[in-house]
Amino acid sequence: MKGKDLLSVSDLSREDIRSLISNAVDMKAGGWLSLLSGKTLALVFEKPSLRTRVSFEVAMRQLGGQTIYLSPAEVGLGERESVPDAARVLSRYVDAIAARTFSHYTLETLASYANVPVINALSDLEHPCQALADLFTIYERKGELNSLTLAFIGDGNNVAHSLLLAASLTGMNFRIASPTGYRVQDRILHLAQGYANDSGAKIFCTEEPRLAVSGADIVYTDVWTSMGQEAEANRRRQIFANYQVNSDLLSLAREDAILMHPLPAHHGEEVAEGILDSPKSVVFDQAENRMHLQKALLAEMLAGY
Fold first, then answer.
1. Range of the domain at 296
2. Residues 144 and 266 placed together within one structural domain of the fold
3. Can you spell out the DSSP letters for the chain?
4. What percent of the chain has pLDDT over 70?
5. What pLDDT, in 10s, does the model give residues 217-247?
6. Are 86 and 207 members of one domain?
7. What tens digit of pLDDT does each residue of 113-154 get?
8. What is residue 152's predicted lDDT score, i.e. its pLDDT?
9. CA distance 64 to 52
10. Cβ neighbours of residue 165 under 8 Å, at least 6 residues apart?
11. Given CB 3.0 to 4.6 Å as the disulfide criterion, which of 44, 185, 256, 275 pairs with 99?
12. How far apart are CA 292 and CA 23, in angstroms?
């Protein structure tokens, strides 16, 4: 992975994912290192962030490197300055770029013109760093990934896309319950089905949350309205009203099932009030593990660790 981009989970192999999780385990236990002394990561963000920004900044600091945060006003990708020009300029200054963009096309353009590795810190198509940290969290709790069943309830969004690809690569069964018109994209599903054929994972798409959750090892949900979709919020609340994860739905999963959410959460919408504080919830482990997994990722991409 050294020197390569990470725009999609599909840029990784099953072995890559397992190596990243193994290294994240070591780094979580080991603390600070000096692997990236003298290295600089540019954080190019078109969207605001809590977990993504802080986890990348702390990850670089704990590896001995540093970050430069560039807000929308400072860069203005495609507006104040063209994406190709920004990519070529940044390549002269920094060792890697983590970009959080509205459009996945912007991310692809940035990567095609940059001479340094580009990491997808979130786009409208995928959120690979979140999915990788989620698999690390599942591994911590379950001791394995293969043959587990993850049930995703809600919008077939960027998080769902990356989780679907990551699960199918690693042999984890993936079920998703979404309303008509809000399912995962066909091309992502087709790609995942190819991975599943090799790994033995099973993929199941339905409109019925109870079917998806029944007997699942992991129950996962995300917001019904993502950043950039605010104008659709009221309509989405109506469409997704029956897709809330509550104690009744969660009771259909395995007794030792865990509950996951990438945060931020809209309490009382996609998750019932208080359920993220239940014993099954691992959402704050997920948030912490963004940092540890990204330490493993940065160490591999920039130092060949």
1. 9-126+290-303
2. yes
3. -TT--BSSGGGS-HHHHHHHHHHHHHHHHH----TTTT-EEEEEESS--SHHHHHHHHHHHHTT-EEEEE-HHHH-BTTTB-HHHHHHHHHHH-SEEEEE-S-HHHHHHHHHH-SS-EEES--SS--HHHHHHHHHHHHHHHS--TT-EEEEES---HHHHHHHHHHHHHT-EEEEE--TT-SPPHHHHHHHHHHHHHH---EEEES-HHHHHTT-SEEEE--SS-TT-GGGHHHHHHHTGGG-B-HHHHTTS-TT-EEE--S---BTTTB-TTGGGSTTB-HHHHHHHHHHHHHHHHHHHHH--
4. 99
5. 999 999 998 766 778 889 999 999 999 999 9
6. no
7. 999 999 999 999 999 999 999 999 999 999 999 999 999 999
8. 98
9. 19
10. 8, 9, 10, 126, 131, 188, 191, 192, 195
11. 44
12. 9
CA gap 34, 17 in Å, rounded: 23
Read off the pLDDT of residues 245-287 as tens digits, 9 standing for 90 and up.
Answer: 999 999 999 999 999 999 999 999 999 999 999 999 999 999 9
HSE of 212, CA atoms in CB hemisphere, 13 A:
26
The dihedral built from the CA positions of residue 94, 96, 98 and 99, taken in this order, carries a sign that is positive
Domain assignment present for residue 181? The answer is yes
Do the Cβ atoms of 218 and 260 come closer than 8 Å? yes
Structural domain includes residue 213: yes
State whether 174 and 244 are in the same domain: yes
Taking only the tens place, the pLDDT of each residue in 20-59 is: 999 999 999 998 999 999 999 999 999 889 999 999 999 9
pLDDT above 90 (res 19): yes
- Which pair of structure tokens corresponds to residue 131? 């999915």
Q: Within a domain: residue 1?
A: no
Sign, CA dihedral 15-294-40-226, equals: positive
Q: 0.85 exceeded by the pTM?
A: yes
